[in-house]
Amino acid sequence: MTARPAKHSLTLRGHRTSVSLEEAFWQAFRDIAAERGLTLNQLATQIDETRETDIGLASAIRLFVLGHYRG
Q1: How far is CA 46 from CA 1, 4, 15, 18, 59, in A?
Q2: pTM of structure
Q3: Which phi and psi (to 5°) does residue 27 adopt?
């Protein structure tokens, strides 16, 4: 597993965007989405809708994943 960020495309409310995350975060993000019965796009949309405007989407996803496993 590499520590270098990998870029993937997501679709949020019909708008395509690219997010760069380390592979460990992508895998954890996929696992959480599957646990919740959501697609990555659906979970990313939920995170996007609740994040503060001064936090980028990639950072918001990392914080979400961290919070999920710490909680």
Answers
A1: 27, 25, 14, 16, 14
A2: 0.92
A3: -65, -45
Letter string b/e over residues 55-66, b meaning 16 or more CB atoms within 10 A of that residue's CB: eebbebbbebbe
For the chain, which residues score pLDDT lower than 70? Answer: 1-2
What is the predicted pLDDT for the residue at 1?
60
> At 50, which helix (H) or strand (E)?
helix 40-50
Question: Residue 17 and residue 28: Cα distance in Å, rounded?
Answer: 19
Counting Cα atoms < 13 Å in the Cβ hemisphere of 66 gives: 6
pLDDT digits (tens, 9 = 90+) for 51-60: 998 999 999 9
User: Six-digit token pair at 49?
Assistant: 């809708």
Task: Say what the pLDDT of residue 2 is.
Answer: 65
Which DSSP symbol is given to 51?
S
